[in-house]
Structure prediction request, 373 residues.
Amino acid sequence: MDQSQSQVSSNVMRQRSDLIKAVLAADPRVDNPLLWAGIANTETGMAHCYGEHAPDQCPGPYSADCNGPVLAGYWDDYCNGAQEGGLGMFQFDRGTYSQTLAHYGNTVLSVQGNMTTAVQFVIDGAWNSDYTPYFATKQDLYNWINSIRVGGTGWDLWLGFLANTYNGAAWGSSKWAAIKAQYDSGTRAMLNLYGESYWYGTTPPPPPPPGNCAPEGGLFCGNNGVPGDPNFLYVCKGGIPVVKQVCANGCNRAPAGQADSCLSGSSAPKTCSCANGRYKNGNLIPQSLTYCGFRTCGSDNLLYECGTGNQWVNTTVACGGSCACANGAHLNGTVISASDTSCHMEVCGGGNTFYECVGTSWSAVAGSTCRMN
Prediction:
């Protein structure tokens, strides 16, 4: 739906924002109300009842909170009688209205019930997603959600997760990118409407999980804001530091607030060769296929990197999940079995470019350069 069509008054907007805060404050797991307010604002402009979202709206089942029909989505059947479309502020949808209510229960017809269901839906989605960081425990998941702030560490990944899991857009597609932008705009609008002190009070955000980085696209030398080899230049990609370049002449640590970079010079390219490495599935990694910047997830769900000391180094970056990327190959043409891949695995591929395994596909690290020994 379109938040710009919301007919919700300023008083109702504030009441529903207050209720989102109360629902999250009562939940012992997560307390980041702006994230859920951003979803509701993006989905419906905080509208819940039929008549609050014009002109693209359909009358759903009766809601006591609305004293009439709940808001139902318009674009699934254009109100032609099939009774399809999302219900309420958070637009829950499992097919027809009756199928949605059979799955979620009639609680989604009330304002508060719609909110509490959204909290659980997002938590479950983040736990099961192939694109969110690996979480060893549910508490790690809650800490990650609670640490997210607009524009900060994990923000871009959060938007991508919503576009993929909440809206069903294929990761990396043009539709996915457009929906990400909508969630970004919708959440920032709620932040600007009431201010950070309203949403978070004076409590500072929890520290981000180990290994994460910000801002998106930021450049860092290893061990200078991100974990890693001091001779590698890393870029923040989806909240994770990934290798962008191996610096032959060393990495320049710029003053705080400025991007790091590789030093210029005429030194020969660095070489790396790491023995006794294993993929996450336990298969042995041939030493002949290792090189500087090659990374794989270990059996402990932490990312290991072949460094300039010719040793596998634990980056402390969490990985895991159920990623499996097909059609991968090293720069020399050696095919990489999908069964050997894992989330955030990084290899030097065609065009002397680093590629990261994300979900089920290889994602190029923009502007990267790499080589094998």
Notes: The helical segments are 10-26, 33-44, 97-104, 111-128, 138-147, 155-166, 174-194, 196-200.
